Amino acid sequence: TDYLRCSPSFHNFARYDCVILQTQARPMFGHLLMLFTYKHFQFWRVHERPRISSEFFSVHSIIHDAALTEDHNVLGDYLVIYTIDTDMFLRMKLMHGSAGHLA
Q1: S-S: 15 plus which of 1, 10, 36, 49, CB 3.0-4.6 Å?
Q2: How far apart are CA 72 and CA 6, in angstroms?
């Protein structure tokens, strides 16, 4: 496993790894300044339910497609990736507000 280091004090020395980034135009080299994990953000968490509790719904009730990623720290939990496009970002912002989550 490769670990990226981004620390002002890694074994008493500063360590800021370099990375190769894929941009839309071309790959480029970068130097890490800061790393974030999902705990730094307010992600919408979805919990898996048993298949027996599945329900039928009309295709007309679909609002938007959704991208989810498995949370490997919590079995059966998924995080909604809402930075895919502006529409999804705004929809999730409304859902957060409707659910009473902090902005």
Answers
A1: 10
A2: 22
